[in-house]
Specification:
By secondary structure, this protein is α+β, with helices and mostly antiparallel strands. It is built from five helices and eight strands, in the order αααβαββαβββββ. Among the domains are: 40 residues; 84 residues, RRM (RNA recognition motif) domain (Alpha-Beta Plaits, 2-Layer Sandwich). A hairpin with a 5-residue loop joins β7 and β8. It comes from Pristionchus mayeri.
Length: 183
């Protein structure tokens, strides 16, 4: 039985190992905080450069870009660039991230130096990237004031949140009653 106790670490050894693990975790968290700050500053620089583009320049860049959907969350911009490298000269790769959690949303945009690169990339629709079948389509140009959500325009309804009720008006069909919630 002495051989079984010889294999068991002492309390001091366990404590030393726990201290090493804790120090390693703290160092890793520090590196992650710095990386997050670097990524955010890069995003801010990129956003600033996009804002300076005229609408015509944005439309021209969009005409050379593709939307890439179903991208693996662990995929990097370098991996995307190398996947599309054979299509043409890649100018920019943008992986969309959630602005609060900073986690990737699962899609990206790849901009090429010319439309031939974009057309070649579209031909790579349904190809595999990191084991996932990606969707590659041409990037659409956002136009101000055009929404796909069908939520209507901005504006208020007076005080509070209005409620629309459809009421049977006794033989006259359905009538719309607009009122205030809880009043």
């Amino acid at each position: 039985d002495n051989s079984s106790t010889a294999e068991m670490p002492t309390e001091e050894e366990l404590q030393r190992k726990m201290d090493e693990i804790t120090a390693e975790q703290e160092a890793l968290q520090k590196v992650q905080r710095v990386q997050s700050w670097v990524d955010k500053s890069k995003d801010d620089e990129w956003t600033a450069s996009v804002v300076t583009l005229t609408p015509e320049e944005k439309a021209e860049a969009d005409a050379r870009s593709v939307y890439v959907g179903n991208v693996d969350y662990s995929c990097t911009a370098v991996e995307l660039e190398s996947h599309f490298h054979g299509c043409g000269s890649v100018t920019r790769v943008t992986i969309q991230c959630d602005k609060f959690t900073r986690h990737p949303k699962g899609f990206a945009y790849v901009e090429f130096s010319d439309t031939d690169g974009r057309n070649n990339a579209i031909a790579m629709n349904d190809s595999l990237l990191k084991g996932r079948q990606i969707k590659v389509i041409e990037k659409r140009t956002n136009r101000p004031g055009i929404s796909t959500t069908n939520r209507g325009g901005r504006g208020g309804r007076g005080r509070g949140g209005g409620v629309t009720k459809y009421v049977n008006a006794g033989g006259r069909g359905m009538r719309v009653m607009r009122g205030m919630r809880g009043r």
